[in-house]
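User: Let's play a game. I give you a shape written as tokens, and you guess the letters that built it. Ready? Here's round one.
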């Protein structure tokens, strides 16, 4: 059993045009997988595709809005037609949304965050699961967040969406464990990606989190999060089902030092 070996595996990564998704796609390709990159942003998608191709990896890219069912269905159909199978799906695309207290949160913005972060995971799994099962089983990893365990003020839509990802993951794990598909979630803490850079620009207090609220006294490099996603998807995690792996530099320990 090797964590490293994804030779001849077909892996789908959403949100692959940036941050955690880009890094995970690079690792999967490095370990021998044919990686399908999906992202709504054409520029980031092309950059990730070029990066992996330059490193000698097998890669395909698709511009997809993960909150739109017809686009998700078409992507999975394309993978089935071209690659004939799917072994791993990393449903990772997401947005943070703006920070507002609930009474001020624009309803359309709330709906948008829920659609991109939560509905997308439902749609992804709905269309990926039949192909994963036809391929003889596999693994799904859904990106949640430490916000699936906490109540960050101002982030109602984000926290609700990520609590939802945790719940959906557990249900999917229950429904599919006996069919050879393992489903787990990943809960990153503060990770140095464009998402955090944008959030920090909008809210200066956010940037101080890394040095105050995180025992590790730093944010994660995207690689430290992506490595955990790859492990969850690998055969080394063959008995891990319906769990949410928290990778947060100790942010949610919730203790204190005397
Ligand atoms: P990022 O902004 O670097 O990357 C997110 C990617 O998702 C982008 O390429 C973006 O274009 C894509 N995306 C956004 N909406 C999309 C849509 N509708 N369809 C397809 N693609 C879409 O952010 P990241 O930090 O790499 O975030 C990846 C995941 O990790 C997200 O689900 C995020 O909520 C989660 N997360 C991040 C942090 C952090 O601190 N960065 C912490 C916890 C959880």
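Assistant: Ready! My guess for every position:
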């Amino acid at each position: 059993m090797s964590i490293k070996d994804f030779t001849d595996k077909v892996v789908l990564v959403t949100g692959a045009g940036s941050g955690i998704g880009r890094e995970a796609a690079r690792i999967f390709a490095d370990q021998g997988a044919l990686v399908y990159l999906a992202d709504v942003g054409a520029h980031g998608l092309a950059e990730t595709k070029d990066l992996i191709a330059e490193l000698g990896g097998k890669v395909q890219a698709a511009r997809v809005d993960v909150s739109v069912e017809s686009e998700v269905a078409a992507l999975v159909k394309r993978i089935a037609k071209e690659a004939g199978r799917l072994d791993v799906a990393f449903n990772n695309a997401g947005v943070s949304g703006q920070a507002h207290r609930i009474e001020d949160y624009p309803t359309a913005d709330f709906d948008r965050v829920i659609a991109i972060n939560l509905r997308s995971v439902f749609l992804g799994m709905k269309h990926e699961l039949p192909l994963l099962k036809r391929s003889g089983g596999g693994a799904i990893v859904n990106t949640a967040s430490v916000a699936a365990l906490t109540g960050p003020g101002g982030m109602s839509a984000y926290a609700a969406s990520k609590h939802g990802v945790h719940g959906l993951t557990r249900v999917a794990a229950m429904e599919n464990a006996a069919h050879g598909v393992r489903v787990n979630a990943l809960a990153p803490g503060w990770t140095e990606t464009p998402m955090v850079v944008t959030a920090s620009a909008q809210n200066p207090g956010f940037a101080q989190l890394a040095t105050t609220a995180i025992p590790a006294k730093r944010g994660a490099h995207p690689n430290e999060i992506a490595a955990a996603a790859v492990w969850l998807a690998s055969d080394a995690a063959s008995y891990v089902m319906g769990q949410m792996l928290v990778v947060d530099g100790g942010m949610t320990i919730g203790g204190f030092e005397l």
